[in-house]
What we know:
The chain is α/β, with parallel strands linked by helices. The chain is built from 7 helices and 10 strands. The chain has a 5-stranded parallel sheet, with helices on both faces. It has a 5-stranded mixed sheet with strand order 6-7-10-8-9, with helices on both faces.
Amino acid sequence: MTTNIWLVGAGPGDPELITLKAVRVLNQADVVMVDDLVNPAILEHCPQARIIRVGKRGGCRSTPQAFINRLMLRYGRQGKRLVRLKGGDPCIFGRAGEEAQWLAERGVQAGIINGITAGLAGATQCGIPLTLRGVSRGVTLVTAHTQDDSEPNWSALAAGGTTLVVYMGVARLHQVQQGLLAGGMPASTPVAIIERASLPGQRETRCTLMDLCQRATEIAVQSPAILVIGAVCAQEHLLPGTLDSKAGALAIG
């Protein structure tokens, strides 16, 4: 496919976790529309591009999605080489599907370049394997924040037997906790709370599902953060990753 618009995952924050393909299109870009959670060091790959910041953060004032769509369409029709740069992976709670569909309906094709999602990188940075033979047979990624404020099927998730990675759950910790407990998940299930996965100031703490809300209050957990829920959080099989000097020191607390 020939395209001049790319929806690109920048990875979770560590600038060395971006793909070579993403670096190539950034280096060729005329315009880069960048989200808030992208590490500024990644923009070193596109020194010649016009940088437009179109941050979207839960609970904060955000650039309207309609404006972002119109801007991408304008540059696409002008033939500009545009990169829409998103934290993590653009297809995991990153709106890449909606944006690509919106553009396609108007005759503009967009390509997608995957990035490492925060749920995977954050767990690895903290020494947690999301799947482990004899412990967890799979992993389920779920968002606690939906456009219509509906709740996930916590009972089905509790019964699924997989590691749960919950995105955008800071404001809904009580609903997450109570939904899983009501669905039959044991109160003793290990949980890891990981803030700013692989970014400067990353923090990680572990508790049980029963103690989740109390522990989050004690450490004053802040967004962006993910929850990893399941028996793998009690494992110590991985050497936690470290960040390079561009990303900052890894803080575990």
